[in-house]
Design brief:
- The structure is a single chain.
- The protein folds into 2 domains: about 130 residues, 3-Layer(aba) Sandwich (Rossmann fold), CATH 3.40.50.720; about 210 residues, Dihydrodipicolinate Reductase, domain 2 (2-Layer Sandwich), CATH 3.30.360.10.
- The N and C termini lie far apart (about 50 Å).
- An 8-stranded mixed sheet has the order 11-10-7-8-9-16-13-14, with helices on both faces. A 6-stranded parallel sheet has the order 3-2-1-4-5-6, with helices on both faces. Strands 12-15 form a two-stranded antiparallel sheet.
- Helix 1 crosses helix 12, helix 3 packs parallel to helix 5 and helix 7 packs across helix 8.
- By secondary structure, the chain is α/β, with parallel strands linked by helices.
- NADP nicotinamide-adenine-dinucleotide phosphate binds next to helix 1.
- One of its GO terms (molecular function) is NADP binding.
Length: about 375
């Protein structure tokens, strides 16, 4: 299969290198803003060269962000080319539209690397959902936050200090808001929940509380009480619809999530028949993510069709019945609440006048 890769950054260059070792794939074109010496004349600055090339059956969009990724991906699907992307922003924001376009034009649209990076999480979630009722999903999907929290649990460091170190190591972006604010996790929650439950929920449906206000004092308290704090995405089916939210969560020391070190991810699904399945590994990085992109390409090349069920479950998110205890620190004092609904806890967080407010759900 002849393919084109758009962008040649961390993931694009990783996918290119992995493709060299894969049978039956030829990278015919790479779209980039300037020449790349080692790639020679396969590099183009003009997307039209790729769109009009009938030999190119698949476009791997590795530019990231919403624009021009959205324009490039929709044009590829409209011309019947398959699309693979690691771009969670794009997939979460244009979920319905891009799936509809793929269906209308007989193309495959796959994005395994968009949640879990190198972990075949979405692939297996989708595979399992063909024959099972997925009851819930949950997990650590942001390596930057896990690195920060894991280090804070093991060393007496403050948040600002360890965030700066994560930036130095290249684990955190210069602007870390998407990671530490929980928005990256929120997008991965949207994509995972939509695949799991056949829904089309969007980012606004998923309340999010990040880790930016956590202190060494909070962590000391958690350590003393046998808890580990992790940023988790959570979603599940309820009798009336679905719940979905992102928040720091206190898990017991024996929980699988508790022992996830450094910048790794751990993501689980619970199905009616299969029970709980967990997936662990590198959620980001050049080769893990590049591999995941090329695995999707190979699945399409092998004719594995995962196109969604055409009927959608018209389900809305309601977090009012999803309740648990919370650790809340406000105006310098902390308490453990009784069971509080997720809706109520996130309302308290958004209405607090304390800019240092911190809360974490407690998983019983
Ligand atoms: N990095 C990871 O480990 C990882 C993991 C999972 C998912 N993802 C997702 O993968 C996507 C790509 O991430 P990345 O880390 O590879 O980003 P990156 O290193 O910044 O790469 C993006 C590349 O696209 C190029 N580019 C930007 N605009 C372009 C345009 N109009 N035409 C052609 N090329 C253009 C950039 O060129 P310049 O460098 O010249 O700007 C750069 O080479 C994002 O959606 C990200 O969320 C990344």
């Amino acid at each position: 299969m002849k393919i084109a890769i758009l962008g040649y950054g961390v993931v694009g260059s990783g996918a290119y290198e992995v493709a060299q070792a894969a049978h039956n794939i030829e990278v015919k074109r790479v779209l980039y803003k300037r020449p790349i010496d080692e790639l020679g004349d396969i590099v183009t600055t003009e997307y039209e060269d790729i769109l009009k090339d009938e030999e190119i059956e698949l476009v791997a969009e590795c530019i990231g962000g919403l624009h021009p990724a959205y324009e490039y991906v929709s044009a590829a699907l409209k011309s019947g080319k398959h699309v693979v992307t690691p771009n969670k922003n794009l997939v979460a924001a244009y979920w319905d539209e891009l799936h509809d376009l793929a269906r209308e034009h007989g193309a495959e649209f796959r994005y395994t690397a968009s949640a879990g990076g190198g972990i075949p999480w979405l692939f297996n979630l989708q595979r399992q959902s063909r024959s099972d009722d997925i009851l819930s999903i949950s997990g650590i999907v942001n390596g930057t936050c896990n690195y920060i929290l894991d280090t804070m649990h093991n060393e007496p460091v403050d948040f600002a200090e360890i965030l700066a170190k994560a930036q130095e190591l290249g684990y955190a972006e210069k602007d870390p808001t998407a990671d530490i604010g929980g928005f990256d996790t929120q997008r991965k929650c949207v994509i995972s929940a939509n695949l799991a439950f056949g829904t089309s929920i969007s980012e606004e449906d998923v309340p999010v509380f990040g880790i930016q206000n956590i202190t060494a004092g909070d962590i000391k308290y958690f350590n003393e009480h046998g808890y580990t704090c992790k940023l988790l995405m959570n979603a599940g089916q309820t009798e009336t619809g679905a719940y979905a939210y992102v928040e720091p969560t206190l898990v017991s020391r024996g929980a699988l999530e508790s022992s996830v070190p450094a910048n790794n991810n751990l993501i689980s699904l619970t199905g009616n028949h299969i029970g709980t399945l967990s997936f662990y590994g590198q959620g980001a990085g050049k080769y893990p993510t590049g591999t995941s992109v090329i695995q999707d390409v190979l699945d399409i090349e092998n004719g594995w069709k995962f196109s969604d069920k055409s009927e959608k479950n018209d389900v809305s998110v309601d977090n009012r019945l999803e309740a648990h205890r919370y650790y809340i620190r406000e105006n310098g004092s902390c308490k453990i609440t009784g069971p509080l609904s997720v809706t109520e806890a996130h309302r308290l967080a958004s209405e607090s006048s304390d800019e240092h407010f911190f809360m974490a759900g407690i998983r019983e």
